[in-house]
Amino acid sequence: MEILRIVVTGGMGAGKTTLIRTISDIEVVDTEQKATDEVGLLKKTTTVALDFGRLTIGLNQSLHLYGTPGQSRFDYMWEILIAKAHAYILLVAAHRPQHFRYGRKQLNFMNQRVQIPYVIGLTHTDCPDAWEAQDVAIALGLDDEKTRPPIITVNATESTSVKQALIALVEEFANYYHNTTG
Ligand SMILES: Nc1nc2c(ncn2[C@@H]2O[C@H](COP(=O)(O)OP(=O)(O)OP(=O)(O)O)[C@@H](O)[C@H]2O)c(=O)[nH]1
Ligand SMILES: [Mg+2]
Description:
Structural class: alpha/beta
Bound molecules: guanosine-5'-triphosphate, magnesium ion
Order of helices and strands: EHEEEHEHEHEH
InterPro entries: Gliding_Motility_GTPase, Gpn, P-loop_NTPase
Distance between the termini: 24 Å
Keywords: GTP-binding, Hydrolase, Nucleotide-binding
CATH architecture: 3-Layer(aba) Sandwich
Pfam family, one: ATP_bind_1
Shape: globular
CATH topology: Rossmann fold
Largest sheet: 7 strands, mixed
Protein name: GTPase
Low-confidence stretches: none
GO molecular function, one term: GTP binding
Oligomer: single chain
């Protein structure tokens, strides 16, 4: 069985826990608790350590999905989760421009620590005031179309959409190793 460890990261309320719950074929292990700080204004519960779910593809491949906490006081969990990851998806809520700067910070954090394939997943694009992908890309500092990662629209509440995003990430992973091994 080939296992790909995928980290699902992104700002608070971006949809990390939802994405994993939507697609996992086992009951998700999550660590949701009542939100105590600024997250409480946004939602009632928040992830405090990690989410874990699994998706089996065909007979011999399985995606292990690790969701990070959104609040920055749990940043140390990122270090633990990304250390063994094969690839990651950064979720960005397209309707919360006030979170874009945090997304940019997360990208820098990840890129300083790991060189692994990744995609950007834009969530909440169905919400009023959602920004266009091109504008979010610029806000995240990903202006160069030639070098930037794929930017995918994903609705974390819909399994077809989540599946497409994960397929895009697995393809990115496959291309990465195809290119680096010649
Ligand atoms: N309309 C819409 N709602 C979404 C989308 N993605 C996620 N949601 C909703 O956003 C809310 C927050 O999602 P969570 O999965 O708790 O977010 P999270 O990233 O795990 O949040 P933290 O653990 O607090 O960082 C939930 O009510 C989801 O149903 C989307 O693409 N569109
Ligand atoms: Mg969560």
